[in-house]
Amino acid sequence: MKALTPLRKSNRFFFVLSKGVSALVDIPFLFSFEIPAVQSKFRDMEEIYKTVSESVIRISQLMLPSNANFGGKIHGGYILSLMDQIAFAVASKFSAHYCVTASVGKVDFLKPIEVGELVTLIASVNYVGNSSMEVGIRVEAMNIQTGETKHCNSSYFTMVAKDESGKPVRVPRLILETEKDVFRFYRCVVKMEVDKERDRAIHDLETDSAEQQAYLRKHYDVKINLTS
Prior knowledge:
5-stranded antiparallel β-sheet
């Protein structure tokens, strides 16, 4: 993997230093990332700033037998559907535009959800690009009889705001009010850079089948029986 390139520019963010006191500061990133070409279309537009807290949405839903899979647990696909719904709601609320799902990050189902539990999804905008927003989603399930709550999974949805003609539209900039806001935004920047490095590494893979077969036979319990 290639070394990450130090960034020679900085981005500007509002920080709320104390109640009623704010400052506009430059934050140098440790990693560079490509700026989409669509940025030039928005440079002359007056910026709108919103806080992360303005984007937060919570929804709760009781899990019914109709939501269960053959094993009696709540179907993962149903939870993903709820996550997509709240991602849309958060992005549309924040941007004041219709939004579409561009990508879904890794989803690990940490604990099963039972029929009769109350599922709560908490979501907010963690990062904004030009027309894109990363929406972080946390899923919790509560036993309504005991009050015990468990973290079931978290994921990150990339949403894109569209105008009336279906073209990407500039979204508000973020005001980062807490250290957690800063961490989530910065983590997204690092994650994007790591994803680009991963994609470049995969793209640069050699098509040497013999070498790949030898590696797989050595390190993995797999049979290779090529028919063509």
